[in-house]
Amino acid sequence: MNTVDSGNAASVRVEIDDVQSGALRPRPVPYAGKFLFLHVDDRRAGRALLRRLLPVTSGGLPDADRGRDAWVAVAFTHQGLRALGVPQESLDSFPQAFREGMAARAELIGDVGESAPAHWEAPFGTGEVHIALSALSSDVARLDEELEGARAAYEDTPGVRVIWQQEVRQLPTGRTTFGFRDGISHPNIEGVGLPGSNPREAPVKAGEFILGYPDETGGLPPMPVPEVLGRNGTYVAVRKIHTSVAAWRRFLRANSSSAEEEALLAAKMVGRWPSGAPLTLSPEHDDPELAADPHRVNDFLYREDDDRGLRCPAGAHIRRANPRDATIIGDARMHRLIRRGTTYGPPLPEGVLDDDGADRGLVGVFIGAHLERQFEFIKAEWVNDGNFIGYPGEKDPVAGHHGGTGSVTIPEKPVRRRLRNLPSFVVTRGGEYCFLPGLRALRWLAELED
Fold first, then answer.
1. Which GO terms label this protein's molecular function in UniProt (predicted)?
2. More exposed terminus of the chain, fewer Cβ within 10 Å: N or C?
3. 446: closest CA among 40, 42, 38, 47?
4. DSSP three-state, residue 443
5. In this structure, what DSSP letter does residue 278 have?
6. In the prediction, which pLDDT does 383 show?
């Protein structure tokens, strides 16, 4: 088993070849992908499927010699592990959030109103989702190659059914449906051998992302038993999010007096310009040249560069999701996540202010070793409340649930600006908590016996 360390004799060594590629590798740019949910009618069939899937899964980091980046990942809900016949002792050893599932914890994470599970797209939240397959690639041709083996595996296994699928693809603009470049940030993870996107970020302990290694507390994160099942695995929150692009554009138009003001207001709410250039480094105008430089686009901190939020507001989307070194209540490093967003559906044509009825948005994947203090904490405390930055009750202007009553504060001199009556710009269409096991764990699951 190959291991990687970070160049420090005292550092943790991660068994990188046993970690599924879908866990740690940044999303390709450009990208094409597909998500599938499967239901297991017969445990023996489910195990047979896993044996057929083993050859198409991979571990480790990108191979520069391959030229193109692609992978298939296999994850399981708690009901899925039960459907495979995992012993009760092992099932009970998983954390409560994973055992209950995302739908049961919807109110905690802000999935209320039109985002509540009662309105979710089937089969999200029904307990019918057992296995989640995901495939991402740098182009469609390679994606089809990667998926062919997986497709043959599930189509040739009676007793296993595909119950949901979603294609995702980078739009021709290279941006999200809201018009902003995405997928810029990736954490610096100790012992992985893959540099983070922010050269000023100190390495985050591997145990924040992969089970079996010390985390930021200095201890080992709770791990399911037996060890072969838990080690080198991680948890994944998968979410389908509809974006209300027309509502976003109408709000910007109603609260601006020119196209330039609209662009600045949107940037203040997101924290970056459409190109990806951060407000912290380019507060007055977009800077595509800065955005195109991978060594500069993420090279900033908040306490050092913009502690008062006069450039990038404390309540901006990217600053809430990752406060970096900002002055906040709590320790941001305890809540670091790997975020991987992928776009689905057609773009709304430029300038259109009315909804055309098309389903568009993103399938978000949020990866970490601690569901409760990473994904759930960020959703409950940072996205849907502003107490940690001194704005109690004020939510993320882009990702928060507002329902027409939200507000956003934008620091300015001499007087700050406060916008009210924000609608919700995103609607949750569904979500699942999944466990992404290591490759040895996949083999263990495939060889389970009754």
1. heme binding; metal ion binding; peroxidase activity
2. C
3. 47
4. helix
5. B
6. 97
Task: Give one DSSP letter per residue of 204-250, joined into a string.
Answer: BPGGGTSTTS--TTSSPPP--SSHHHHTT-EEEEEEEEEE-HHHHHH
Q: What CA–CA distance (Å, rounded) separates 252 from 437? A: 43
**Average pLDDT for 110-138:** 97
3-class secondary structure per residue, 109-138: HCCCHHHCHHHCCCCCCCCCCCEEEEEEEC
Domain ranges of the chain: 1-450
Residue type, 117: P
- pLDDT of 68 strictly over 70: no
Q: Which residues of 243-255 are buried (b: 16+ CB within 10 A; e: fewer)?
A: bbbebbbebbeeb
Return the closest-CA partner of residue 223 out of 90, 74, 339. 90
d(CA 322, CA 271): 11
Give φ, ψ of 27 to 5 degrees: -65, 135
pLDDT band for position 63 (cuts 50, 70, 90) = low
Q: For residue 97, how far is the Cα from the chain centroid? A: 17
Residue 67's CB: how many other CB atoms inside 10 A?
A: 8
Across the chain, mean pLDDT equals: 94
The identity of residue 246, as a single letter, is A
Amino acid 23 reads A
Cis amide prior to 203 (ω within 30 degrees): no
The rounded distance, in Å, linking the Cα atoms of 23 and 210 is 9
Look at residues 196, 190, 189 and name the one whose alpha carbon lies nearest to residue 298. Answer: 196
Question: Tokens 């568009």 belong to which residue?
Answer: 360
Band (pLDDT 50/70/90 cuts) for residue 120 is very high
| Sign of the CA dihedral with 170 first, then 314, 377, and 359 last | negative
Per-residue pLDDT for 354 more than 80? yes
User: Helices (H), strands (E): how many in the chain?
Assistant: 15, 10
- Give the integer Cα–Cα distance in Å for 144 and 135: 9
Phi, psi at 364, each rounded to 5°: -100, 140
Residue type, 270: V
pLDDT band at 62 (very low <50, low <70, confident <90, very high): low
User: How far apart (Å, rounded) are the C-alpha atoms in residues 83 and 41?
Assistant: 8
